[in-house]
Amino acid sequence: MVKIKLFGTLRLKTGFKEMEADISSIREAxxxxxxxxxxxxxxxxxxxxxLNGVPCKASAKLSDGDEITLFSPSGGG
Amino acid sequence: xxKPESNYGFREQTVPVKEKEKLDKLNRKWFKYLKxxxxxxxxxxxxxxxxxVSTMQMRGQLSTKNYKYGTYEDYEKVxxxxxxxxxxxxNKGCLSCPIKCARTVMVDGKPVKGxxxxxxGLLGGGILNNNLEAILKWNYELDELGMDTISSASTLAFAMxxxxxxxxxxxxxxxxxxxxxxxxxxxxxxxxxxxxxxxGSRWCSEKYGGKEFAVHSxxxxxxxxxxxxxxxxxxxxxxxxxxxxxxNGGYMVLVEGLSLAVDQQNPHGKADFTMIxxxxxxxxxxxxxxxxxxxxxxxxxxxxxxxxxxxxxxCKIVPYIGFVLRIINKLPTGIMHFHIPxxxxxxxxxxxxxxxxxxxxxxxxxxxxxxxxxxxxxTRFGIRRKDDSxxxxxxxxxxxPGNEKTKVPLEWMKNVYYSARGWSRDGVPTPKxxxxxxxxxxxxxxxxxxEFKK
Lengths: 77, 454
Ligand code: SF4
Hints:
heterodimer; A: alpha+beta; Ubiquitin-like (UB roll); five-stranded mixed β-sheet; 3 helices; globular; B: mainly alpha; Aldehyde Ferredoxin Oxidoreductase Protein, subunit A, domain 2; Aldehyde Ferredoxin Oxidoreductase Protein, subunit A, domain 3; three-stranded antiparallel β-sheet; 21 helices
């Protein structure tokens, strides 16, 4: 199982925080998130992704016990 | 709506605008752009600056336990998302601003201003506190006492570490937060340990020891961005005219992790970018505009598509185009006799309001003159290279043990920065630089520091 977490304004818009799913790629996570929310998958494709807390590429392979985090773009303060 | 009976003693006056119609037209376009931009139209209005906590955690930039670490395991409990979901009651902001970045939360049954990212970071992971409700309360108390949350929180974290290391028996420990409200009061009224804390972390480290972990520059404590994982901002904190200020320091973290993923550890090109960001922000601040409007300077297209090839390519080339900026920075600003449409409206707005012949070039020059003038005054007060410093923790100890890149290569970056600015190796603006910026005549005002102090 892989844990998927969402941060940033997409989290506020969708109300989605986290879930566990049996997936092996980030592509599958985008599709799953689109199903779970009313937001199309392309919006999630714009997110910055971290695998186990470290930024990663969208092509990263996932294995059991991993945690991926998606962040919608953020700015300054 | 009923008109208020009095103007609270103020006389009603209209600020004259040189070209009102053109200004209105520009403002409409500008507002529209700000509202459509992912940072000024989405992140800041919805999450405020607090929304950065989670991104900083991912980038290893969330100062934790007095800047010892760059990540905090309980960051979610003090994040902007959690604040928005559980505590924020309304988004507010300054009059007429389309961004509205401020939060309002309830404290003791009263609606009060919510915390910014710096406060969440430094009073959260900074002192190992995961109680967001406590931060809301402290933020309010510090505001009421007129104390800066960054300096207060950072000095507190220093005191906690000094206590932990046995240097200063003050009873303050990381993670133990019951008595903190009393500490703020004690600082404000200079009672007990508050009498020492009121002098800030530099002073306390000189009295009790621990200079290597007193996190300040020129006596001003740093914001919540851990500079070992944003080395450009590390340089900015050190050379900033008013001490360790992230905004006066050029705010390189915006492209080194927050909005863009420019290599956080690569020092190349950062000095030249820092200089131009500082000058731009100086110009924006001095004409009375909000710095947050400058975030829209990063084109919407690259911010909203971080996974695209063009955004990745842009991030990759930044460290290698410092020399191009260096050439631009050295050219007479007169050649930038234009405005930058859509993304940077400040110079044109200033022109339409005042009627002065402002262009993008003269706007940058005004910022550069301001920045250099401040430095010139600082050097008269004795500020030199040695003062553009950071504590040893940030320059000598890698954040990730064994990874030498995760510290600030400050001395090397300072050399590049001084040369970009036209300052001597000791950090003093050269006569030629002052002449180029029409600041050389100032020396005919023979006001020395000693006379000033009288
Ligand atoms: S003017 Fe600046 S500080 Fe004020 S609400 Fe707008 S963005 Fe925030």
